[in-house]
Amino acid sequence: MTDFTAAIQAEIGITRHSDWVIVDQKMIDLFAEATHDHQFIHVDPARAAQTPFGGTIAHGFLTLSLLAWLDGSITRPAMPPVKMGVNYGLDRVRFISPVRSGSRIRLASTLVDITEKAPGRFQQTLDVSIEIEGHAKPALAAVWLTQFTI
Length: 150
Known about the structure:
By secondary structure, this protein is of the alpha+beta class.
């Protein structure tokens, strides 16, 4: 077992949190423009106020798309530099609670498994959830698979 393998194995089961970020209406509107998803519940505050949500909510896919950025703000123990990392996929993605415009969210990430697929190439499995400040239930939960080379 290499020093890297031992260090990363020690991280299994530890939950780490990202910084908090505000999901505001500007972010929601920009995502709507980029994806051409202009459903009123996301972009029309007056109409959305008349729904059970009481205002606009972020697209579920916007929340999901923030995983990589939020993950980048997590402080972890020093490891060898990663030469390249790629998303491998997601399992069991669930959108549990809506993210209302103006909410603060953060990522909770737990390393579940790490496997060396080839010398210096690893695949990690993370249990992730996007927490909403002040809410008991997360916005989303998923199993996130990434691969990276050191």
